[in-house]
Write a structure and sequence with these properties.
alpha/beta; 3 domains; five-stranded mixed β-sheet; two-stranded antiparallel sheet; 7 strands; globular; disordered C terminus; CRAL/TRIO_N_dom; CRAL/TRIO domain protein; CRAL-TRIO_dom
Amino acid sequence: MSSQYSDFGESEPRKTALLAPTPDSKPYPRPKLSPDQEAKYKTLLSEATSWPIITCDNDISKSGPITSRERAWLTRECLLRYLRATKWSIDEAVKRIQATLAWRREYGLDDLTPEFLSPEQETGKQIILGYDKLGRPCQYLSPGRQNTDPSPRQIQHLFYMLERMIDMMPPGVESLVLMINFRPSKERQDTTIPVSMAREILSLLQSHYPERLGMVLMINVHWIIRAFLKVISVFMDPTTRDKFKFDDDTAQHVPIEQLWSDDWPGQLNFEYEHKVYWPALNKECKQRREGSAARWLAAGGVVGESEEYLAGGANVSVTGYHFDNGNNNPSGTEKSAGLAMLGERGELVEAEAKTAETA
């Protein structure tokens, strides 16, 4: 029977992303902070709450007041990820968070559109599909499906998809899983990427996505790929390096009903069809961002909000606000406000605004 969890037993291949992990796939409980860690978090929270502007040293024209979208990004869990990544150094965490905020502006991360990146996605070389046994979203990378030459847009495509994986994270989940199949194709025998590009990607991941990478599972890793990975491993920190697993039993990590059957030992019958998958994924992710933004605004729009609350896993904000709106679905007004905050006002919202004007 087809569901949001799997398509086990279906003869027709699934063509859209799974929307949730299996019911028994859950993240480990978050460890409780020590008194010292809680004190450092509160100090960092106070610091981040006071930031009036974002300074972009590499593109001064993009410097300016901090936006609601950026304040919403500064969740409790976000601040804690940077604290852990800097071994609980408040000063280092401040520097890295501010550097990430500047990079996101300079890179135009929130301005990337599905239409602009669609040519990169046409062959399904990157697919967000299913969740592992800890509820972490899985992204399949298939270098053999590469359809474009190395370019800045290729890297933009990768980080756009990482952001969509974050959209797809269920409550309580903070990291993701990359599933890389190095099998060559008739169209693409060389499944490596330039070392310079790999180095840039690793640098950006380690600098601006601390503790987001949960695991990297790789199959069909022939000796050329192993040599390539050995070269780029010198650019990885030890923690990142330990997350790479070669030709491991992926079924130990991902429920077989959510594990793709294409080269992987799973039972999920999936077929990539760009005109179906791409709009459906972006629609789902946009709706999740709308809901998160609406919940953030409803609770007062504070820095340090809980990601559990924003994702709908809890109805009580860190401010004590109780979110309860008809099965916890944001109203049209709340969605409109959320879209406005995100800068993603669609036709529906514009129509609602026109209706309000003429009422």
